[in-house]
Amino acid sequence: MSNALPNSMQARDVEYLLHAVTNARRHEERGPIVIERGQGIRVFDDEGREYIEGMAGLWSVAVGFGEKRLADAAYRQLQKLPYYHSFSHKSNEPAILLAERLVGMTPERLRKVFFTNSGSEANDTAIKLVWYFNNARGHHAKKTFIARQGAYHGITIASGSLTGLPTNHRDFDLPIIPVKHVTCPHHYRYADPGESEEAFSTRLADELEATILEAGPETIAAFIGEPLMGAGGVMPPPEGYWQKIQAVCHKYDVLLVIDEVINGFGRLGTPFGCNYYGIDPDVLVLSKQITSSYQPLAAVLISDEIYQGIADNSAKIGTLGHGFTAGAHPVACAVANENLDIIEERGLVENARVVGEHLQRELRRRFADHPLVGEVRGVGLIAAIELVADKAAKRRFDPVGKLGLAVFDAAHEQGVIIRAIGDQIAFCPPLIITEKEVDEMLDRFARAFDQATAGLNPA
């Protein structure tokens, strides 16, 4: 334990907690920022410092912090039925109402809902249900998933295998399930010189088709993707991408699993990323903003075709041998229903569109021409700035991430929480943010950016 942290909550943290997505030795030296409370778009640490939460926690607090209606919804449900399960023909009213609501608001072919506790569990469940369905229809060799490099689909063994980020694989012995990773659809980084977005999309669709044919269509179970890639660096797809990818999947009987753990419930200024990009999924995965992360909850929605195959197979076997103790938890589902009420009543999807346009415009106006900024990108209330050592050549810094970490640290000093994904700086504020608050957030970030880059000589 660091001597710099005597007799404090920070010191106790360092003594007892192992932190997610953190350099453990660096954490021993610097300790945590202990967040004590939140209100609206702001959080406060245990020393009274205030921060604009520019990442909505982990891409997830749609209605902001300190929303009393969600606390009251949880309390009411805790008093009435604090827990029950969904095994063996049992159910509860909040789960039934939420399932009905989700079917009503998501793409038309999705007819059944399975609840889990996290996005990682939900993507694990999607994998298992796809395998179960393919076995049920006699396609026993259809086991391989196709995902993208740079994708994030979770952190458990199966969902972590789908994730296309090296740090989530290295020394965890992943991937462990049959998965093939194809090119990340990030035009700025991976398009050929002079290649248009449409041509890049065509090349990626051709790559997908070649991958399917090389493996054998009879072995490929599903293609999984985020409509807009989030935790890998906020990467919107190129023009025409999803239409071309869907066409290939349909041609070879490859199911389409869409991961909207980050995109869902208004983040892009539409109800779902599927709406924004014109995607018709066979399986849809939701989490994070479903409860504004006030409670752990995720949902897997499946088409009627998949449900019928699963239902027949469960009758043949005698059961669907999958489920979680806290799946369809009545308190989590009650909070989700209230959270979705708030999103609807306050017009937060439209707010994400309107204020998101302001965020995207201001980020580009303020930073796009900076010599250390290669690209500003995003849709709605999710965005990123990519830092580069050489703007013309798009050359990355060496080592990657050192400058991003400096910007991340400086942002804390200036009172704004952002996320450094290597040298990509991500923004994803709560859906309640106003244009004035966006300007305040970017003012703080600009000071942090100037502080972290002072003295650097761009190429």
Automatic annotation (TrEMBL):
| Any one GO MF annotation of this record | pyridoxal phosphate binding
One GO BP annotation here?
gamma-aminobutyric acid metabolic process
Cofactor dependence: pyridoxal 5'-phosphate
Lineage, top-rank taxon, reads Bacteria
- For this UniProt record, give its keywords in alphabetical order, as a comma-separated list: Aminotransferase, Pyridoxal phosphate, Transferase
- A Pfam family cross-referenced in the UniProt record is Aminotran_3
Record-linked InterPro entries: Aminotrans_3 (IPR005814), Aminotrans_3_PPA_site (IPR049704), PyrdxlP-dep_Trfase (IPR015424), PyrdxlP-dep_Trfase_major (IPR015421), PyrdxlP-dep_Trfase_small (IPR015422)
Enumerate the NCBIfam families for this protein: PRK06105.1 (NF004767), PRK07480.1 (NF005682)
Q: Which family does it belong to?
A: Belongs to the class-III pyridoxal-phosphate-dependent aminotransferase family.
UniProt name for this protein:
Aspartate aminotransferase family protein
